[in-house]
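Hi R.,

Here's the chain you asked about this morning:
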Amino acid sequence: MDHRGYPITVPPRNQPARDKVTNPRENTTRLLFETRFEQTGLIQQEDRVRSDAIRIKTSIAVPSLDGVQPTPRIAVKSGSLPEYKPAPLNPKNTMIQSLRLIAITFFVCHFSTAIQADTGKHLFILSGQSNMAGLKPAESFTPAVESKFGGENVIVVHDALGGQPIRRWHKQWKATKDQNPKTIGDLYDRLMKKVNAARKEHDLASVTFIWMQGERDAREQNTAVYAASLTGIYDQVSQDLKRDDVNFVIGRLSDFDMRNKKYKDWTKIRDVQVNVAQKHPRGAWVNTDDLNDGVNRKGKPINNDLHYTAEGYKILGQRFAEAAITLIEKQ
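And here is the predicted structure, written out as tokens:
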């Protein structure tokens, strides 16, 4: 019996000793331990490193009463070091990762919109005479800016009156010849009344002033004061809104009277409009030469007309929106 109370099997003298035996001739009791190890790598999701079992056989000699100390033996019987093999993709995990990506994307977009809303709204002021009056912002202009900035972040104010000279908006307008105008700056007051009502209790991220006018001044030959009037109206808007970053978009007169027959200063006013826009640090101008051929809003065919076609006004709104968006993005 061994120290645990189990019987000890003694092989015949002519047979070599096997595992778990006692050799009576050496009077040495051997306790043989056999340990099996299975090597595995760190498990993360579905990746698993597998290996064959490494079997280590250890013989530990326990000294007998006569003091003999046999030498321990360690032998690797079989096995090999683990080899990393990436696990194949798991469709379930792929779906989970996709759902996580969608959730993160939604959060980022929603958070970005919230930040933009917190910084204020984009105010667009459209004014001028007949061709601005013919423009309907809801047809093309408003959808374009709302698509860019979000409907909740846009304020559009439209106020125009046909056949009016620029002095009806510029309060500091001064005649260069025998003129005795009855009203100066009254249409600007009407415009700003609408602007102040629309922007009430709103912080503004940007302000863009869009101007389409000049036909009447080309006919009255007011080129000498037109540039000062354009910049004067811009300064009025900036001062009243207490901003120094107002964008300025000007619609240039069309090619209606390029020979200056009916409107003596037609081409001169066109040049002034372009020059003011190009020199202004936040200025831009829009071409209208191709908007006056076709069918007008009344269904009447027109060719090189003073006013624009039904489709021409839609295009004009799109061009105003594109110019305004470009200036805002530069900020």
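One quick note: The first strand starts at residue 22 and ends at 23.

Cheers,
M.
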